[in-house]
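Subject: Protein record for review, amino acid sequence with backbone structure tokens
How to read it: Take the token row as a discrete description of the fold.
Enclosed: The protein record, placed directly beneath this head.
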Amino acid sequence: MSSRPPSPDIRSSSRRSGWMLPAGLAVGTAAAALLWKGLRPPPIPQGVEPVRDWDIRRYMGRWYEVARLEHGFEKGLERTQAEYTALPDGSVHVLNRGYDARHRRWKSAEGKARTVRGPDVAALKVSFFGPFYGGYNVVALDTDYRWAMVVGSDLRYFWILSRTPQLADGVAARLLAQARLLGVPVDKVQWVLQDGVNPTGSW
């Protein structure tokens, strides 16, 4: 009887290698697909036309969020505001902030936005999580940039913004009528407390 240890089972080893190679390719393919999905321009809802002849420089600065469709990332927040700042590379720094009355504290989120149809079309992609972008489409805009209506990559994402904590008389009704025609579920729109009071001091 030979004292040599048994030789490796070449067929078994080949089967293991053959299993690992497709698995590795599958993981790489999935990662590439996610990256491609994150980097491509987000979709614009059917029937939505972003504002043209848009001056991105005039859009910069502070906006008060006066109405929205509720989502988890803003749920329960009051006095929500957005601050947009143009960056040297052509992108926009985004700072969102809102007051959580339940826990008596401010919450904030920073992100970056880029135009997707040129600098004069109000269609952007916004990211708060690495390379993954969501849509930001201005679909109505005051000629003096005093208010704006925005939808996201689909009509479940909806905001009305204003340079002041309250809209002028009649503006809300006009914007909601336009939103209804686009297919926004206006019966679910929530109006945000914006009384101009900052309970924790100045921003």
Summary: Residues 5-38 have pLDDT under 50 and may be disordered. The helical segments are 10-39, 56-59, 171-182. Residues 135 and 153 are 4 Å apart (CA to CA). The two ends are 86 Å apart (CA to CA).
